[in-house]
């Protein structure tokens, strides 16, 4: 088959739509004259670099990614560990978090963003190998698989919490949850675990409201983290502090009404709106209709990735696609949810649209895996799947 026949053109056009939306939204966001840098040009440069990475990833077969997975995971874990002990000259504390390395001539790089991709690869490999060696499944073998998945995810989460970056840690838990659901583990184990997680989450929220001193003393929760919860529940009570961004976001989205105020006609000032609150800019200028169109593009992306997972005849590829779907879905739901007060503010960007080099490159790497899955799919159409696993 020719390159044109093997290339995933549907995914290409979906990504082209997200690229266009990103550039338009960022250009509008920086018209407030609060920035001296041209973030649109920077975003285009990151997209170009990401496209080059995707082109390289396209040439690598999924079975080779499986072989590289533990090496990449190890390198990512090492970077996260180095970040914890690195001096402030190369790993400065920004907004209370030590999450970035400063590279001369390049800028900042956030290792946790790339670790998401490495974790997806290793989780896919662990699930495939476990299921292959335990074809006669029992509750005991499922429990071992559950421990493996939690162990692989838990290590980077623990290191990320040292930064501390609770929002990014939640993304890893979202990835883990999606992988557990499709790993073939019996629901006799899954339901109680998720029930316990729900109970713990509810208890923590209760303690935040009623007894925050317990969380500060025994769990090491920072005051600013508690402030985000309070600002989420009662933003107007904290409008001079943690609730400021949420109030402005609600005002922007609400004032956009059905069709918006028009491109470049935004009136509500939101600091750093080109990053985490880019959806508020879209909601104000393009209204409910424009916001729904953006959500529709994300729906098409997620639907297409699910179809790739279903059609994959190499089980490792299928699990990789599920991991990518879990990551993107969590990002979209959390980011849009926090701009409309559905969820607390966590600082998670809107994938492919918010400005951010590390985040965008990591997300494009995830899409690169999807491109590779589709590109090499037909080579194994009549092969023995067991040989590939």
Automatic annotation (TrEMBL):
GO molecular function terms attached to this record: lipid-linked peptidoglycan transporter activity
* A single Gene Ontology CC term: plasma membrane
Q: Which biological process, per GO, is one annotated for this protein? A: regulation of cell shape
InterPro entries named in the record: FtsW/RodA
Q: Transmembrane stretches, by residue range?
A: 12-32, 44-63, 70-94, 143-160, 166-184, 191-209, 286-306, 313-333, 353-373
Alphabetic keyword roster: Cell shape, Membrane, Transmembrane, Transmembrane helix
Location relative to the cell:
Membrane
| Chief location | membrane
Membrane topology annotation: Multi-pass membrane protein
Please state the span of the N-terminal signal peptide per the UniProt entry: none
Q: Is Phosphoprotein there in the keyword field?
A: no
Q: Which PANTHER family match?
A: CELL CYCLE PROTEIN (PTHR30474), PEPTIDOGLYCAN GLYCOSYLTRANSFERASE MRDB (PTHR30474:SF1)
Q: What is this protein called?
A: Rod shape determining protein RodA
């Amino acid at each position: 088959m020719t390159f044109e026949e093997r290339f995933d053109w549907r995914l290409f056009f979906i990504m082209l739509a997200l690229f266009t939306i990103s550039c338009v939204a960022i250009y509008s966001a920086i018209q407030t004259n609060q920035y001296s840098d041209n973030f649109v040009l920077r975003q285009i440069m990151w997209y170009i670099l990401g496209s080059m990475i995707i082109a390289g990833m396209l040439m690598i077969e999924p079975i080779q990614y499986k072989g590289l997975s533990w090496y990449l995971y190890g390198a990512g874990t090492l970077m996260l560990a180095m970040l914890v002990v690195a001096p402030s000259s190369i790993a400065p504390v920004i907004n209370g978090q030590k999450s970035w390395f400063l590279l001369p001539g390049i800028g900042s790089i956030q290792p946790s963003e790339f670790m998401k991709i490495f974790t997806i690869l290793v989780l896919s490999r662990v699930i495939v190998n476990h299921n292959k060696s335990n074809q006669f499944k029992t509750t005991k073998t499922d429990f071992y698989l559950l421990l493996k998945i939690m162990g692989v995810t838990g290590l980077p989460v623990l290191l990320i919490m040292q930064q501390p970056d609770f929002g990014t840690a939640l993304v890893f838990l979202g990835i883990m949850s999606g992988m557990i659901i499709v790993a073939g583990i019996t629901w006799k184990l899954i339901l109680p675990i998720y029930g316990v997680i729900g109970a713990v989450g509810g208890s923590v929220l209760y303690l935040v409201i009623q007894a925050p001193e317990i969380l500060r003393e025994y769990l090491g929760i920072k005051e600013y983290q508690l402030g985000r919860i309070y600002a989420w529940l009662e933003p107007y009570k904290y409008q001079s502090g943690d609730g400021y961004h949420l109030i402005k976001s609600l005002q922007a989205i609400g004032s956009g009404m059905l069709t918006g105020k028009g491109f470049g006609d935004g009136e509500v000032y939101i600091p750093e709106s080109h990053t985490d609150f880019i959806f508020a800019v879209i909601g104000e200028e393009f209204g409910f209709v424009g916001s729904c169109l953006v959500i529709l593009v994300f729906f098409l992306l997620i639907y297409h990735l699910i179809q790739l997972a279903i059609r994959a005849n190499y089980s490792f590829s299928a699990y990789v696609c599920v991991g990518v779907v879990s990551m993107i879905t969590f990002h979209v739901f959390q980011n849009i949810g926090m701009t409309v007060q559905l969820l607390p503010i966590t600082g998670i960007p809107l994938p492919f649209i918010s400005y951010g080099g590390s985040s965008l490159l990591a997300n494009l790497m995830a899409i690169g895996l999807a491109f590779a899955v589709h590109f090499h799919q037909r080579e194994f159409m009549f092969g023995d799947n067991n040989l590939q696993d």
